[in-house]
Specification:
GO terms for molecular function: transferase activity. The chain is of the alpha+beta class. The protein has 2 helices and 4 strands.
Amino acid sequence: MTATIEPDVTIDSRDAACPGPLMDLIGKVKTLEAGTVVELQTTERNSTTDVPEWLEEAGHDLLEIESRDDHWSLYIEVN
């Protein structure tokens, strides 16, 4: 990653089983204003495909997926 993304909101869904991380994200996004950057932390591998699919349908932007030592961080911009 060339620049560090500074999220406005972090959702810690590590150790939540699928579809928990996606449901956590959907619930939170409904409360946020456009332009808010969200970091979703997850240990659920399926989130790396399920979340981008939902974002495309919902009209939000996937900024980055980072693989960490013990989880993934998905960065989303709310539209």
